[in-house]
Design brief:
Strand content of chain A: 5-15%
Structural class of chain A: alpha/beta
Largest sheet of chain A: 6 strands, mixed
CATH topology of chain B: SH3 type barrels
CATH architecture of chain B: Roll
Shape of chain B: globular
Order of helices and strands of chain B: HEEHEEEHEH
Shape of chain A: elongated
Strand order of the largest sheet of chain A: 2-3-1-4-5-7
CATH superfamily of chain B: Ferrous iron transport protein A (FeoA)
Strand order of the largest sheet of chain B: 1-6-2-3-4-5
Largest sheet of chain B: 6 strands, antiparallel
Helix content of chain B: 25-40%
Number of domains of chain B: 1
Helix content of chain A: 55-70%
Oligomer: heterodimer
Distance between the termini of chain B: 11 Å
Structural class of chain B: alpha+beta
Distance between the termini of chain A: 65 Å
Largest interface: A-B, 48 and 39 residues
């Protein structure tokens, strides 16, 4: 396997697939590639409603008719000419891995829009199979597809499926088995498309100039060169005996066009796709607009849209804030840990471990089990689990792109496009994950601003859960906390938009049909996110416990506390709050959980100041790490240098305003 | 079904009388895309890959708070900038019959 692909693939268990025939799945985002991958291999990866989730290349192993084969799931791609890094990786993989079979998964009801890419794969000489997925949705929309017509016209196997419901999986497996046995002859594809004469002539000239061995057809290489594909130019320089002759032929070929024949080629592909779709598809429009069309309309109408948003937020609050953060946390914290686990651990340590210093590593006030694991399992886990479940449901329903449209005008004021609503909402679950997802935003400026806002003003679900638990008893406190954070979000966003250089964001997004989420998909997606979270977070909780233990033994902890206390006084908080803020350096939610322990000793004003400051304060270790990795050290350091004093300034200011108003 | 104007394949008039930005269509009005007037090549390619390209027939579904239009069975949402850069030839009842 090639190096370039290895680097983008670092799953936990490397699947040994050396020497097996390779099947590669390709297609646009959100058409069911990942579901097919799961059906073929039994390993599940996140299926998602926004581009860029399948960022990493996923490998697996499948078996048909006794023969094993390797399967690769690729990042979503829109065409053979790559635009994003993900598309570049997907194409490189097709070029370098020499697959035995490429499966192009498409949305059947949008066949006409999907076929240009199918035509390109065929032109590239790849051994192709076409899977018409989401047939259930197509049929509901009144679309019938005759796969035989396509099969004959394209000269490749075509299978109809509804993969989310498990329909057609056996047919795909049978077709894979046939293709791997070589029963079909995929490479001998008929001439599937003819471009305008000028382009065909240029292709002919270029194909004759090409002499090297390539994993792409010469016709496709010629087409890509004509469109100015730099990666292919580099490939020509590397592998062609006379690269200069080829590049000169490219220049000559391009002279006939104003810039590049990109648009003409895209049009010809589209025209041919329309012709094919016209032969293969028959449409019988359903009689009346369904309930989903009306709901979609209500989501996008500002009036009803805002009501639906408030209603959704209320449901999420009831589920995550009340059931997760209050009922489940109370049960695990008091019913399980305080009642059984902690006394049992302390008693066991008392009997087994004679040295108090070692005992305090595992038990007591700050032990790995009694503090680290307790926070992770009892306080954080219920909130994160309920949030991810709610998020997966909302995501699978197709609501988020509509929300993005609704909110685009507001987001433009803070330098973001509506698309940024996805990482922002996800941030309420896990800011670390959201900072990763922010890479799908189009401009660097948007990525920087959203990273700043995620670090500053978006509390993650672990933190949010504890904050809601702390403030939830008093609606006034919750209202002030929400108001201050919203004001900070908008104000800092607005100022950041003024000072951050770069182009204005633009918004364009496909609105996928509203779908009723399937239980299986929601659950496995939630499980995948939970697994990621536990793998990233639990070790850090243990690490934080160890660091605090070391800090206490060496006296560094007390020294740090002494340094933080004056800051606490400035915020009008008691000395003990210093401990919670010190925890906050290790993990944001960890600090919040520390406040939870202090709850009884704080006045309403102190509680408010502490929660506001803590929410704005430094992000957790994992998020900082992702900030450095994704946005570079300059941006990451800049954000941190801004966030810490700013959080204290807002907290101190709030304290003084509350005192001056004589409130609380 | 989306239809394509055969003339737009070989020749693309940069502007032609009667072509208007998508932003000036009425809700419910249909049009055929004639020109995508934007500089950013990556963005242009992305829009084309989504199926928004000359020859595509669309119907405006909503103008506020964003522009929503339908091509075939897909809906797209765009902001004012993009809606101002997609030029369409509006279809009235008689023109629609020709296509």
């Amino acid at each position: 396997m090639t190096q370039s692909v290895q680097t983008s693939c670092h799953g936990p268990v490397p699947v040994e697939t050396e020497g097996m025939p390779l099947v590669v799945l390709v297609g646009q985002p959100n058409v069911g590639k990942s579901v097919l991958f799961h059906h073929l291999t039994g390993i599940y990866v996140t299926v998602s409603n926004y581009p860029g989730t399948t960022v990493e290349v996923t490998r697996g192993k499948g078996r048909v008719a006794g023969d094993e084969f390797a399967v690769m799931d690729t990042p979503g791609m829109y065409g053979f000419l790559p635009i994003t890094e993900e598309e570049r990786i997907a194409r490189r993989l097709l070029l370098e891995e020499r697959p035995s079979l490429v499966i192009h998964v498409v949305d059947a009801k949008n066949l006409e829009r999907m076929l240009p890419m199918t035509l390109q794969f065929i032109e590239a000489g790849l051994p192709l199979m076409l899977v018409l997925n989401l047939m259930d949705e197509a049929e509901r929309a009144g679309v019938q597809v005759d796969e035989d017509v396509l099969q004959r016209a394209l000269g490749i196997p075509v299978v109809k499926t509804a993969l989310a419901r498990g329909q057609g999986v056996e047919a795909v497996r049978a077709a894979v088995a046939a293709a791997l046995r070589g029963d079909t002859s995929p490479r001998q594809s008929p001439a599937v498309i003819r471009y305008p004469d000028q382009i065909e002539q240029a292709i002919d000239r270029l194909s004759r100039a090409l002499q090297g061995e390539h994993s792409l057809s010469r016709r496709m290489i010629a087409l890509l060169l004509l469109q100015g594909d730099e990666e292919i130019v580099a490939m020509v320089r590397q592998r062609e005996p006379n690269p200069e002759d080829v590049l000169r032929a490219v220049e000559e070929g391009r002279q006939a066009f104003a810039d590049t024949p990109m648009l003409e080629i895209a049009l010809a592909l589209r025209l041919r796709a329309a012709e094919l779709a016209g032969q293969a598809i028959s449409v019988h429009a359903p009689a009346k607009p369904g309930i989903s069309a009306r709901l979609s309309e209500a989501m996008m109408n500002p009036l009803t849209g805002i009501l639906l948003l408030v209603f959704t937020l209320f449901l999420v609050y009831e589920f995550v804030g009340v059931l997760g953060a209050q009922v489940l946390v109370d049960f695990l914290e008091n019913g399980v840990f305080a009642a059984y686990v902690n006394p049992w651990v302390d008693a066991l340590l008392g009997r087994v471990v004679p040295w108090p210093w070692l005992r305090s590593l595992f038990g007591g006030e700050f032990g790995i089990i009694t503090l680290g694991i307790r926070y992770a399992v009892a306080i954080v886990l219920p909130v994160v689990a309920t949030f991810f479940l709610a998020f997966s449901l909302i995501e699978d329903s197709g609501y988020l792109p509509r929300l993005a449209m609704l909110i685009d005008r507001v987001f433009k004021k803070i330098g973001l496009s509506g698309r940024a609503v996805i990482p922002m909402v996800l941030g309420f679950g896990c800011d670390t994950m959201a900072t990763l997802v922010a890479r799908t935003l189009e401009t660097r400026r948007e990525r920087v601003i959203s990273t700043l806002l995620l670090a500053l003003a978006i509390p993650c679900s672990a933190q949010l859960g504890v904050m809601l638990g702390l403030l939830g008893g008093d609606v006034r406190l919750l209202a002030v906390w929400t108001a201050v954070l919203s004001a900070v979000f908008l104000l800092v966003g607005y100022l950041a938009a003024q000072v951050t250089p770069g182009e204005r964001p633009v918004f364009y997004m496909e609105l996928p049909p509203l779908r009723l989420p399937t239980v299986g998909n929601v659950l496995s997606k939630t499980a995948a996110r939970m697994e990621w979270y536990l793998r990233e977070v639990l070790p850090l909780f243990v690490l934080a416990s160890v660091l605090i233990w070391v800090g206490q033994l060496t006296g560094l902890f007390d020294l740090a506390l002494a340094l933080i206390r004056p800051v606490m006084h400035w915020l009008g908080l008691p000395d003990q709050a210093a401990t919670a803020f010190l925890f906050g350096f290790f993990r944001r939610d960890y600090g919040a959980a520390g406040l939870y322990d202090l709850q009884a000793t704080l006045s309403a004003r102190q509680l408010l100041v502490a929660t506001v400051t803590m929410t704005l304060f430094v992000p957790c270790i994992a998020q900082v790490a992702v900030m450095f990795k994704e946005r570079g050290w300059k941006v990451a350091v800049g954000i941190l240098v801004f966030v810490v004093p700013f959080a204290l300034l807002v907290g101190g200011g709030l304290n003084r305003v509350l005192l001056w108003l004589g409130m609380m | 079904m989306t239809l394509l104007l055969s003339s737009s394949v070989t020749e693309l008039p940069l502007s032609s009388a009667g072509d208007v930005p998508l932003a000036s269509l009425r809700v419910g009005q249909e049009g055929v895309v004639t020109v995508l007037a934007m500089r950013d090549e990556a963005r242009l390619r992305k829009l084309m890959a989504l199926g928004i390209l000359p020859g595509a027939r669309l119907r405006l579904v909503r103008r506020w708070p964003g522009y929503v239009f339908q091509i075939g069975f897909s809906q797209f949402a765009v902001d004012e900038d993009i809606a101002g850069a997609i030029y369409v030839r509006p279809l009235d009842a008689s023109a629609a019959a020709d296509l």
